[in-house]
Every structure is written in C-alpha cells, then in structure tokens.
Specification:
The complex is a heterodimer of chains A (355) and B (241). With 355 residues, chain A is an alpha/beta fold. Chain A is 39% helix and 21% strand. Chain A is built from 12 helices and 15 strands. Chain B is α/β, with parallel strands linked by helices and 241 residues long. In chain B, the strands form 2 sheets. A 7-stranded mixed beta sheet of chain B has the order 2-1-3-4-8-7-9, sandwiched between helices. The chains are: A alpha/beta (355), B alpha/beta (241).
Amino acid sequence: MRQEKITKEKVLMTGNEAMARGAIEAGCSFYAGYPITPQNEIPAYMAIQMPASGGVFIQAESEIAAINMVFGAAAAGTRAMTSSSSPGVSLMQEGISYIAGAALPAVILNVMRGGPGLGNIAPSQSDYFQATRSGGHGDYRCIVLAPGSVQEAYDIMPIAFDLADKYRNPVMVLSDGMLGQMMEPIQITKSPRHQPARYKKPWALTGCRNRKPNVVKSFYIAEGELERWNLELQKKYQAIEKNEQRLESMFSHEAETIIVSYGTMARIAKSLVMKLRSRGKKIGLIRPITLWPFPKKGFNSLKRNQKILVVEMSYGQMLEDVRMAVGDKFKVGFLGRSGGGIPKETEIVRALERL
Amino acid sequence: MERTISRTFSLKNVRTHYCPGCGHGIAHRLVAEVVDELNIRDRVIGIAPVGCAVIAYDYWNFDCAEAAHGRALAVATAIKRVRPENIVFTYQGDGDLAAIGTNETIHAANRGENLTVLFINNAIYGMTGGQMAPTTLIGQKTATTPEGRDNHQGYPLKISEMLGILPAVKYVERTAVYSPQQIMQTKQAIKQAFINQLENKGFSLVEILSPCPTYWGMSAQEAMEWIRDVMSKEYPLGKIK
C-alpha cells in the first residue's frame, strides 16, 4: 500500500537514533522523555530533530509526567511518543493504562536494561512479561513490536504509529541496550512513509467548533458502563490477535530443531543458525516480531518430531508464550540469562545438544 | 422585555452530583460564564482532575480530557504545546494539585507553560471520604487525623505562595466563594487567568477557597463562615503575584 521510494542512501547510526529518526519520518510530532541509560540518544536526537521538523520536544520532570504528556498530545490528535528504559517504563505503567483505557494511539519505546530494581544498564529482555501482559492495572493490552536489527528498528517505527492509529491503542517497541547502542549502516527510505490522512481522528480534542464537545476519558462509573467498554476493548484485542501477528521464520519447516528468540537474542541465534547449517545441521529459527499478539501462527504447521529451544535474555518469559502456542505436543527446551548475561553461541550449542 | 440573565451556554442543563453546599458548583459555573463571556467555547479544552470534580466534563459544554490523579498539568502542557491556538485550562483539587501532582504543578509553572490553572482548595479529600489534604489546617479533624492535624502531619501547604516565587509564573491570586462579593472577585480572577493565556502571557493560577460541608461536618452556612473566619486567615486572600 505504501509508496516508498527506496534510495541507495545508507547512514551509520545507533539503534536508538534509528528509532528516533524512524519516528519523525513516520509523522511523530510530539516527544516527551526523561533521561535514563541506555536510551539517552533518543531524547538527544529528538531535542534537535523534533523542533527542526516542526514538532514539539519536552524534557519532562519524570517518566510519569512524560507519559501523561503523551496522553495529552495523543488526545489532541497528534502522533506522540516517549522512550525510556526498564525502571522508567515501570513508572509509566499507570499512564499507559490510562492511554489504553481512553483508546488513545501512542508509541512507547522501551530500551530494556537489567532489573529488578535499579538493576544495571546492561542489555536485557526481562521486561517481556510487563510489556506483553499489560503492565499497568486493568484488562488491556499493548501491541508489542520487537525489532531485531538497527535497520528494523528504523523500519518498524511507521508500522508502530500506523498500528497505534488503526486500533487507537498504545504500541510498545521493545528494544534493549545492545540494539539501542549498536551502530549499523541502515538504508534510509527517502519519501515520507506515513499517510496521516488514512487515520481520521474525529474524537480528538481540537475545540468544539461546529461539532458537539469531545471528551477523552477512561472513567466509566455508571452501572454496567465499564464492562461494556471493556468488552469493546476485548473485541479490538481479538481483531489485533487475528490480524497483526508478525514473525520471521528461517528454515522452520525442514529443520529438526528450531530456536525461538527475539530482538538482540535472535540476532545472535540467527548467525549461529547460519553457521550450524553450513556444517550440515538441520536447524531453523522463529523470530517473533510482534510479542503481543504472540505470532502463534508461526507454530501451527510445525511437526511433532521437531524440537524447540527458546533462548532469551531473561529467565523464561517468552517461553510461556511458546508453550501456550505449541501446547504439550512438543518438547520445548530453554536457555536464558539475565542481569547483563547474554547466552553465548557455545552455550546455545550445548543447550541444543541437551534437547 | 430586556433579557438580563440567561442560562450559561458552556454549562450543560443537567443535574448536579455534588453535595448540598459544595463549592464546586459555583466554581464550575464561574468557569462556564467566563468561557462564554470571552467567547472561547469553541476552542477551549478543559482538563478534569481525579477527585470530586472527576466528571466536570459532564457539566461543561466544551472539549475536555481526563487526567490521571495529579497529572492534569502534564496533560495540559502537551495539549497546549501541540495546539497553541486552543485555550487550555486545568481544574484541580488540593490533593490532586498539591500532593500527588506537586511535581507536575511546580515544573509546568517553572516552564511558564501558557496555561490557566484553577485550584480548588477545600482543605480535604472529598471523593475518598474526608481524609487529610496537604492544605488541611492545623487542628482540623479528618478521617486520617482523628485528633486533628498536628505538626507531625505537616503544615498547611502554601502552594500558591511557593509558585509565586518562580520567575516564569505570570499570575497567582487566591480568592474564595463564601460571599457574593468574593464570588464576583473569584470570577474576575478566573477571567484574568484566561485573558493572560489569550495574550500569551504564561502560567496563571487562581486558588479558590471552597467549602466541603460534608467532610467538614458543618452546615452549608457554617462552612461558608468557616472559610471567612478561619480558613482565609491561614490562606490570606488577594493577589500573590
């Protein structure tokens, strides 16, 4: 659908900068954020480029203020975004719940670091549960996208904003300190990749000139009102689960063993898969790109004799989704490290041998 | 016959949920009258708080957003920044603005956001059942200060005076609604705070001392007299900046 003019231009940038650039090119015109490592390149980029592109940049007084600013900007009908890293995203959860409850489109970047608590600033994937199980209070879901390279971090931003507008729902882009800090040459898409006109926002707060007043709210106090609204949300989530599962699948039909990984971990797994295949091993990879909705469809056609190894930079979070996707028909092995540890190729090979 | 008074167009013709003698009804109406008189109904955006005024948008006949408890000024900041042509105001109670939202309040004020802030100070949490507020007076009995507030629970927080020292703050005035004269003064102050925004002058706040007879344990009239005789001694009326 999109008319993209791909040029030969390649630019060397970090994953964080790539996401910031991708957001602006996707029509994001409001950014608020609070400093936290390892995502500081994003607000630094936005501080220069957002005003340069006619948008608004605010350094907020806290992550709590930042996400509520995003609530306001989204309510006013603009494409709005914030970014943070794990502890900061924990602080934002209340606001994300309000955004979901008020059915506002917004994008939240989480460049994950080690936890719990202050943890450390090393890359991690241990916010998977928080991201995919709602994180804040109430029955809601964020759409969660997990880029696996700097190029994809750039390419995924217009998808994130389109999904947010299409479903009037918060979208979280789940990255990590490795992907955020890593530099790679990426191909820049030259023409504007967003079509804001596709998503009309008659509900937005613009002043009630020539129309009835609009109210943006998540408060439904009358008898039965909240349950009716929650059922509306559930219908939306069912549509998202049906329509928006995304994954990358490599050799998964013919492989004897399949590694399931996302983000930075999938990048490491991918190079191992290519290495092992060159030695004649029948191995494949499934890389979920949407973590919610979890891409169950990628597991439907697997055969019972295929073995699965889930590898994460956390202690068995995505593992639960894989188990739910395949049921108890498959043997599912697991390898995970967290707190700054990243499973090495040799460790993955040993885990494969143990299957 | 000459028409001398009519229904305030920016106020919906609906039943109130507020208690008898509550000050919110007066303050809501004053906001609506000012919006009508300044002819800004079609571009005003109000931010309702969490507290008794949580459904203020059920009364006001113009665009409104809710905000999480204490976050009205973060929401308002963003709306005004992305839509500078709109007139944006927050309506917040003492718990919302001066306890859980202190951070957002101070920083929006310190940035000099071009906003209008209406701060309803009734020295108590009404919606949740009459607990101590940051503005509760020393000795005042509440659900969480059954013996009366003492120093260990802090002093009445003078948030308006605190904001007054910030260089980016344009206008701060404290008014009350205990008499027709004070109500007219309150309306003047609200109007000034909106005019300041229309003239791009920056952050303007009106603190309104308002009665909560239900949780003060008083009649409506006693509550008005208590504002006049006791509360306004702790919180002196007048222009702070």
